[in-house]
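Record type: monomer structure entry
Structure origin: computed from sequence
Chain ID: A
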Amino acid sequence: MASKNTSFHDGPLAAVLLSPLKLAFSLGLGLVLILLVGWAVDWVYVSRVWPDGADRLRSLLAADLGRGIALAARQGRGAGEITGPANLLYGLVFEATGIHEMGLRFADASALSIPDTVVRRSYLAHREAIETAMVGTQLLGVRFATFMRFLPLLLLFYAVGAVDGLTERAIRRSCGGRESASLYHRAKYLQMAVLWLGGVALLVWPGPVAWELCAGLIVIVTGGLARMQWAFYKKHL
């Protein structure tokens, strides 16, 4: 019986009600961190590495957009499957905050009020960094949408690996084979590491991405780890 002094936050009802909020907060925080990492990488390459600066980033966006649309077309989907997430992410970051409209207004040479003149000078002083962030945000959205094109394949490989692993577990248990909680947990955590680190690396990579090779490798490794995870599942089903 639960204690009367148990806090509401420790109860099962609170866990059910707060879980969606915690998940939304975690996803939002993760998105912000990925955006910051992507902006930092893009700015370093635009300002320090690439001779043509932001033009190289724009050409990279155009190339990734073309590859993403071509991949979606091979799957029988339209270009909106790729451009939609990119436009949504750009709208959340720059249109909802008014930065996009601010840039359009400051591009006009007409007279401005004194506060607007001060803000305009600050905007123009950081124009290259802001434009880099704008293009980088669209690139991030395009790559995320392209990576999602491999989600059905990822789920298929995970399901096949899990079924094969459970089958091997059943055979080994009937023959008196060993189970291993440590291997189970290692495989589970390695899957998370492969998906998160591999996904983030594909999103922020400052160069062309061979999607079929890189995403395919992530899918295959995840399927293999899923097989290992469920093959060494220790608890009784």
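Annotation 1: The mean pLDDT is 85.
Annotation 2: Residues 12-49 form the longest helix (38 residues).
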